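ok new one. same drill as before - structure tokens go in, u give me an amino acid for every spot. 94 of them this time. try not to just spam alanines like last time pls lmao
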């Protein structure tokens, strides 16, 4: 399921300081909530691959464990160096 222009994703984008013209997404298990100014038809294949990787991470670790690990990594390494984000960025290239 994809949810566009989600308020939750918009808040997360603001917290992480992401460019509002690029957009931001949060994936929770099988749901991807996106905040984007461009609308659903402008989401790139690269972005889909990134979020699909996060869906696989949820399958691998389970919902609670994935969220706890993600938040821990974000606090310890920051968003850019969070191992979950590093893996998702690598998945964009496949």
């Amino acid at each position: 399921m994809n949810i566009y222009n989600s308020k939750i994703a918009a808040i997360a984008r603001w917290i992480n300081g992401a460019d509002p013209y690029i957009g931001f997404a949060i994936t929770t298990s099988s749901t991807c909530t996106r905040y984007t100014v461009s609308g659903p038809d402008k989401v790139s294949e690269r972005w889909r691959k990134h979020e699909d990787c996060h869906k696989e991470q949820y399958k691998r670790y389970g919902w609670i464990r994935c969220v706890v690990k993600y938040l821990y990594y974000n606090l310890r390494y920051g968003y850019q160096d969070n191992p979950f984000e590093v893996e998702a960025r690598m998945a964009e290239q496949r």
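The helical segments are 7-16, 45-61, 63-77, 83-92. and btw The first helix runs from residue 7 to 16.
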